[in-house]
Amino acid sequence: MNVEIITIGDELLIGQVIDTNSAWMAQELNKFGFYVYQRTAVGDSAAHIVKAINEAIKRVDIVLITGGLGPTKDDITKHTLCKYFKSKLVVNKVVLNDIKKMFKDRHRVVSPVNLKQAEVPDNCICIRNKNGTAPGMWFHHKNKIIVSMPGVPYEMKGMMTDGVLPRLKKTFITPHIVHSTILTQGIGESTLAEMIEKWEDALPPNMKLAYLPAPGMVRLRLTAIDHDKKIKGLAASQIKKLKPLISKYIYGEGDDNLPELIATLLVKKKKTLSLAESCTGGYISHLITSMPGCSAFYLGSVISYDNFIKERFLDVPAGVLKKHGAVSEETVTYMAKNIKKKFKTDYAIATSGVAGPSGGTDEKPVGLVWIGIATPTKVFAKKIQYGTDRMRNIHVFSQTALNMLRLEIESE
Amino acid sequence: MNVEIITIGDELLIGQVIDTNSAWMAQELNKFGFYVYQRTAVGDSAAHIVKAINEAIKRVDIVLITGGLGPTKDDITKHTLCKYFKSKLVVNKVVLNDIKKMFKDRHRVVSPVNLKQAEVPDNCICIRNKNGTAPGMWFHHKNKIIVSMPGVPYEMKGMMTDGVLPRLKKTFITPHIVHSTILTQGIGESTLAEMIEKWEDALPPNMKLAYLPAPGMVRLRLTAIDHDKKIKGLAASQIKKLKPLISKYIYGEGDDNLPELIATLLVKKKKTLSLAESCTGGYISHLITSMPGCSAFYLGSVISYDNFIKERFLDVPAGVLKKHGAVSEETVTYMAKNIKKKFKTDYAIATSGVAGPSGGTDEKPVGLVWIGIATPTKVFAKKIQYGTDRMRNIHVFSQTALNMLRLEIESE
Predict the structure, then answer these.
(1) Domains and their CATH numbers in chain A
(2) Which of A53, B118, B291, B320 is at a distance of 20 to 30 A from B56, taking alpha carbons?
């Protein structure tokens, strides 16, 4: 089943916003056996929106529209669709209650503009929006399906996951698609490709491998498509062959992520964690505290950006800082050991490095990081050298540190 | 002059790659008075590419194509265009020399596949590529201009800047386009819309306002287009009228962001900052340390996720925690005051709240945050109630806290 994604918004055409929605939607659609044939971005103009829909329904079976559903004047998608589908706007009571409840929960007063969001075309199926005021609208038209969703990423994502994808899946018979994802850390894309070249070349035609690199990790996604449901077992046996080839770099599968894997390990062992971050500047702590329930094992951290903090609050001896510098095995070892002791945790991570883009020296270039790990029985440190991009370094340093901790806990 | 950007590549349709090229191209085109009317992404299929071009030249004057110019089998753009424009491939000597020189400079041997890149359609103008082997191709066809460029971002950017944009500017007389963006914090999109309704309704037809919401902020973008260069002054005077209507919510303009505005203020005043983060879990510290050079004013923080850390390392009295709880005016006031004193900084921010999605009570529901600010002369706190999405709350709490600090420093 072919899909076209139409993205509405002047901000996309003047380049003020990078469209990340379409990529996410395409990935989710793929998982259910829907294929994006074309993506089209148009401005906030009724005539242009209508033209785009008319062209899209000639090309595909399903048109997914995002954007232009806000309560303000520049948002014209709803009125345009209402006219296009020859409908009139009526108040949807379920949506109205959703909006009232949302404002009540936030202790805010509902304005008339907000209430207007509950008006929807009388010939559409309403898709509820748990994260905002604009409902989604699902239309049947000339044997095609046209769905309109908000452009705000988390509103669209909630709506796709809870409303649109399940309904699409119920409507169409699609082939079996199996996505198996293996997550690796500590190895580059091209080296990985060389290590698994023979395996990849021998894949049958109904299976395809994709390399999805992100800072500090590479995901390998095997996609298998077939109308025979045996495909699931066949894909699993290919994954079974793949794993031993790169086992030392694999940290998880599917939607696993390092903070969650660590959380599971620590909660199970009833152990706790603290951090002493310098160059990563709070990013590891942010990754951990992004998880609901992290307070079960995470106590907190000291972000010792300045050496004064390292010395005074993490008890790194002044002599060590002077002799070896802040970016050194000695310093991160003290940092890890002392935060663990002070915060009375079982484990600790410490980082100190040169994130860049400047501040490097011949001896300690940009991209160099020392990572220290303290466990109930030992303290050790490792150094890694990456690139020159600051944000990328912060991400890579953090993922590497988390994986070092995971490997250590798992090996115990 | 209207432009359509056609992006070619299967990777865009399965969501493997986020298209950042189009946003950059749109911004650069706008600067020269060219307006992107539509963006279209299609797969690596000759029939689909031809169809997309045929449709685009009905809509716009200029079609800019990226992608599909690599040397491998799946790159079919050049052959497709060659057939479309009824041309034949000929070796372009300038391109051939560019390729040979590039390989010589990199001490690499030129392969026959690389040399083939010098073959171009005989009826196009070649655009040189200083960053890769694939030249750009500029075609005149039915009074329209069609340009094909590589999809690799830095190759495309070099080619746009040095070749395509200067040539477009020579070819067309374009209108003046002025974008003015006002950044607001602490107010929702719909309330903002109500506050400026009269002003917005009175805008002349050559000016248009857009609301661009993001967690914790709304950007207002006024776009003015006219052939008379007076438009710049007229847009400025509209912005001048807008500002007083919402002055208390405005924190910046254009590409400003809160951490950078705070950095500028603190560096200028030679003042320093520390943080005591609980519910924001290191995110404020991450926003600050994402900026190169932040060590000029930022010393570090204590992430006091557990109450033990608040009590023991931020000296929040046990009695206060017991009586008022961690999420309280009293607790964040102690946190802000004490981190400032301990870390010997001039300013401090403290946060304590319920990020969610669970953990709320009737008295302290999910989405409630207390933010404390300590300055050289005072300490104060404010509470805000937001939604139920954990990540969004973390973002909104952080932006709100940063803006509270900025307002305080600016008011001194």
Answers:
(1) 2-171 (3.40.980.10), 185-253 (3.30.70), 258-411 (3.90.950.20)
(2) B118
Quick check: A166 and A147 in contact, CB under 8 A?
no
CB proximity list for A2: less than 8 A, separation 6 or greater: A34, A35, A36, A37, A59, A60, A61, A62
DSSP B364: S
Cβ distance B1 to B62 under 8 Å? yes
> Taking CB atoms and an 8 Å cutoff, what residues of chain B touch A10?
208, 210, 223
Question: How many C-beta neighbours within 10 Å does residue B47 have?
Answer: 10
Whole-angstrom Cα distance, residue A105 to residue A96? 14
Cα separation, B405 vs B84, in Å, equals: 59
Q: Looking at beta carbons, which residues of chain B come within 8 Å of A289?
A: 280-283, 303, 305, 355, 394
**What residue has token string 């936030």?**
A106
Whether B78 contacts B137, CB under 8 Å: yes
Residue with tokens 């951290």, as numbered in its chain: A301
Name the residue in chain A with its Cα closest to that of B193: A72
Nearest CA in chain B to A343: B309
User: pLDDT tens across B379-412, in order?
Assistant: 999 999 998 889 999 999 999 999 999 999 999 8
CA distance B386 to A219: 35
pLDDT in tens, chain B (412 residues): 899 999 998 888 988 788 999 999 998 998 888 989 999 999 989 999 999 999 999 999 999 999 988 777 677 899 999 999 999 999 999 999 999 998 888 777 888 888 889 999 999 999 999 888 899 999 999 899 999 999 988 899 999 999 999 999 999 888 888 989 999 999 988 899 999 999 999 999 999 898 888 888 999 999 998 989 999 999 999 999 999 999 999 999 998 999 999 999 999 999 999 999 999 999 999 999 999 999 999 999 999 999 999 999 999 999 999 999 999 999 999 999 999 999 999 999 999 999 999 989 999 999 999 999 999 999 999 999 998 889 999 999 999 999 999 999 999 8
Give the model confidence (pLDDT) of A127-136 as tens digits. Answer: 999 989 999 9
CB-CB neighbors (< 8 A) of B194 in chain A: 111, 113
Task: With beta carbons less than 8 A apart as the criterion, state whether A6 and A63 touch.
Answer: yes
User: Dihedrals φ, ψ of B191, to 5°?
Assistant: -65, -40
Closest residue on chain B to A10 (Cα)? B210
Number of other residues whose CB lies within 10 A of the CB of residue A234: 15
Nearest-CB residue to B23 (from A15, A55, A358): A15
A and B: number of Cβ contacts within 8 A = 269
Provide the shortest C-alpha distance from residue A114 to chain B (in Å). Answer: 7
Q: Kindly report the backbone phi and psi dihedral angles of residue B186, in degrees, each rounded to the nearest multiple of 5, phi listed first.
A: 90, 15
Nearest neighbour of B211 by CB, restricted to A70, A299, A303: A70
Please give the residue of chain B at the shortest CA–CA distance from A290: B391
Nearest chain A residue (CA) to B15: A23
Q: Looking at CA atoms only, how far is residue B321 from chain A in angstroms?
A: 16
- The sign of the torsion formed by the CA atoms of A164, B37, B56, B24 equals negative
A347: nearest Cα among A293, A283, A288, A272: A272
C-beta atoms of B23 and A44 within 8 A: no
Please, what is the Cα angle at B137 between B135 and B141, to 5 degrees?
175
| Nearest neighbour of A30 by CB, restricted to B14, B212, B385 | B14
* Min Cα–Cα distance to chain A from B188, Å: 11
**What CA dihedral angle connects A34, B38, A17 and A219, to 10 degrees?**
30
Task: Name every chain A residue with its beta carbon within 8 A of the beta carbon of B208.
Answer: 10, 74
Do B190 and A73 count as a contact with CB atoms less than 8 A apart?
A: no
Q: What is the pTM of this model?
A: 0.81
Query: Which tokens is A30 given?
Result: 């793929």
Q: Do B394 and A35 touch (CB under 8 A)?
A: no
